Amino acid sequence: MGTLSSLTAFILGIFTYFASLITPAFVAPVPEMKQDDFIPVMRFVATSDTHIQTLGDTGCKRTSAMLKTAYAISDSDEDYNKLDAVVFSGDITDNGFADSFMAFAAVTDNEIREGTERLAVVSKNHDSYIFFNNSLKVFSGITGQETDFHRVIGGFHFIGISRSDTLKQYTDEQVKWLDENIACAVEADPEKPVFVFQHEHVQDTVYGSSKTDGWGLDVFTQVLSKYPQVVHISGHSHFPANDPRAVWQGSFTAINDGGLAYFELAVDGKNGQFPDEKDRMSQALIIEVDAGNRVLVKVLDVDEGKIMREFLIDNITEKNKTKYSFETRKENASAPVFAEAAALSYEKKGFKHYITVPQATVSEDNEVFVYRITVLNDKGKTVYEDWAFSYYFLSDKPESITFDGFMKAGKGLTVRVCAEDVWGNTSEYLEIKI
After folding, report:
1. How high does pLDDT run on average in the chain?
2. In the chain, count of helices (H) and strands (E)?
3. Which helix (H) or strand (E) holds 317?
4. How far apart (Å, rounded) are the C-alpha atoms in residues 237 and 200?
5. How many Cα neighbours within 13 Å face the side chain of 114?
């Protein structure tokens, strides 16, 4: 071992020692689970956007908590008590400093047990702010891991692709490499899912990937579309993983893994919408496969230790999948409904006016996305409009939503509020005179 490698190993050893001291000590909860007929033959954790800066920060603590909970889930499963892998899909660090990568390595080394493989891809984003084209070498030098990988774990193929070390986001050689490796996996067993990991969403798949949302790339679209067995897992957007639109199906399957840092969303085609509770984002996926090659995706709220939503993907080999296509689900979704006794409440504080609306309800496979408020004057003219999140992305979402104070524009006003689901369906209006 060279002098530099020895020094790196020594420093990493120190980081790992201190990680063992500062790792939060708690008994990880075992979240309630559904799908009683589902018996796993393989299980792994997927997340991204840990945005680690220093040892012991929020990203480290959430990574530690995520792993503790994943092991608690595995240990409690009488049928299958293994955690086969944990995969991080980019933006591992906030700025790409070497000591940030060391903090990631130390926390995961401390928490991951023997028999669980750690895999990660490096982004051409936060991970590359400092070392840019050398960030791959820095990461590999610290962790000893490949940044483009093809591993077989529990009989299933895991393929990860990191940013390139050139000026391009991804190279033509990487596109060819991905195609060849997926083809190899499918040839080995065309009935099994092939898990592909990338930092960015594939454009026009999951919520957050459209051109207007701004967090998708189409460089691999042609390759992935050739293989219905592909389950593509990505992050980057910070959009919630429990949103029904976090799973998309067409010629392949795409899944948003959420992430362990702040929430961001897009409303009315505008991204960069940050809720007040944005820093409470702590989402990861517990993904299991059974003997019939069904894939069960459990969205975990790491901070709360709760499973927020489950997606059962049972059509892996179907060429043109419709179960989780946006078109199918939008067509089948029913509009939100307010309870029969639901009513708006009004309060004045100084010169501002506040309207509170009780949460509406939707079907189990849907979510109320936003509430929209319209204020009409005594002539029926709209004098104020706004929207507010339902906070569906929190496992302990509030029972009601209050619109921040607006200036009253005249007398004899009518306030109307409706609930809108993730597919754009709206409820009937609740009204109040102020």
Report:
1. 92
2. 7, 23
3. none
4. 8
5. 0
* Amino acid, single-letter form, for residue 184: C
Say if residues 36 and 290 touch (Cβ distance below 8 Å). Answer: no
Instruction: Tokens for 390, please give them.
Output: 């339902």
Residues 416 and 404: their CA atoms lie apart, in Å, by 15
What is this structure's pTM? 0.92
Query: In whole angstroms, what is the distance from residue 429 CA to residue 355 CA?
Result: 14
Give the three-class secondary structure for 106.
Answer: helix
Convert the pLDDT of each residue in 216-246 to its tens digit: 999 999 999 999 999 999 999 999 999 999 9
Which amino acid belongs to residue 93?
T
Q: Residue 375 and residue 416: Cα distance in Å, rounded? A: 6
Last residue of a domain, one of 331, 357, 372: 331
pLDDT at 397: 95
- Which parts of 190-245 fold into alpha helices (H)? 221-224
Same domain, 358 and 266: no
Residue 177 burial (CB count, 10 A)? 17
Q: What is the CATH number of the domain that holds 290?
A: 3.60.21.10
